[in-house]
Write a structure and sequence with these properties.
Length: about 190
Amino acid sequence: MSQKQSKEESVPIREHVFDGIEEYDQRLPNWWLFTFYIAIVFFVIGWALYYQSPLRLVDDFQSIDSEMAEIHAKKEAETEKVLATLDNDALYEMSKKPEQTEAGKAIFEAKCAACHGMDLSAKLGGVALPGLPLNDAEWKYGGAPLEIMNTITNGSPDVTKGMIAWSSQLSPVEIAQVVSYILTYHPR
Ligand code: HEC
């Protein structure tokens, strides 16, 4: 291949011209070549270790899967522990702990107040809301803490009433917190 010489420098210029653009034919600098070859070597070693090693020392997908499974199992165990010890007394105890009732209040105001009222009276400015009052002594589905918890978890037997099974949106722990908040209106 014959090569032209540029006027200013002795770097060869490649033959082709495209849209008036010419290209130097430079030898790549050593530091660049060095990095490039190191990258190739690094890739080969990495590829062999990650994907070809019979030891399967480091498989990202496997380790993510097992870590996720571990986290999931831990969460389940924690929930089960909470639920196993959950009885009426435990829920009354919870209702005395501000950090639990505050969490329950936040959930109540976000998810429940629209139908049951901010003050649990099921009224807004004297107008009745769709839900039942939760601050009085009358309970359609029982006023024991576990009964309240059951109503919230599984919803009203009559789905057309609008009281859904909140287990679809809230974790058991969150539901227990809401119950503890409702119980602050019913101190023992
Ligand atoms: C869309 C409106 C609506 C929302 C939102 C709603 N409820 Fe209800 N709730 C109702 C209705 C209606 C009833 C009565 C159902 C019936 O008569 O079968 C009810 C019943 C209840 C009862 C039983 C009351 C009793 O007298 O036994 C409890 C407890 C309760 N709701 C708690 C909650 C909690 C806690 C939330 C939020 C997580 C919530 N509700 C969200 C409409 C709602």
